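Before going further, learn to read the protein records used in this course. The integers have meaning only within a learned vocabulary of local backbone shapes. To see the layout at work, look at the sequence and tokens printed below.
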Amino acid sequence: MGKNFSWTAKVDGKTVADGTSSGADDHTADRVEQEASLNVSLAAGVPRGKVDVTVTERKSNRQQVAEARAAHNGR
């Protein structure tokens, strides 16, 4: 089914970029963080160490509906 992530990048405490990332089941938050950190540091012209990236996993609508149905059915 794949995984979906949202991410936010900050430099010196200020949000400079945010986005989403989707991928196969082996897509991880660590990978999203590394890619976002590299891309933002290159775009902003700052060292990667100054880029703080926060990643959260998002559930697809299909996953949310399935979980709601399972909870409703007592599973």
Q: What stands out?
A: The chain has two helices and three strands.
